[in-house]
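#lab-general

N.A. 3:47 PM
ok so I finally got the sequence cleaned up, no stray characters, all 106 residues accounted for. can someone with queue access submit it? mine expired

B.Y. 3:52 PM
send it over

N.A. 3:53 PM
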Amino acid sequence: MNSTNKIEIAQDGSISDFSKTFTINNEDHTLGNALRYMIMKNPNVVFCGYTIPHPSEAKVNFKIQTDQSITALEVLEKGLLDLQEVCKHVLTTFDNAVQDYQPMQV
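B.Y. 4:20 PM
back already:
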């Protein structure tokens, strides 16, 4: 396994495109739990879970299983994009609140 890649498809014995395990390198529970939440909101997902193999390893193993109407890779990509949009919204909301607050401090 080449740890320079951010995301890898783990060799878990599954040959189905609808059930895959992905390894996300240099991440922890912060991304793992948020991404799991976003993926589970997808109605085509049957199962999504993640594990941290060991506390000293900075990687997350993600298992995604779908109802076979969409591939596990497509679900992962959509989950990452959805999470990115949520983060952008939170950042914009925070920036707007700071801008609204600053004039009150003068």
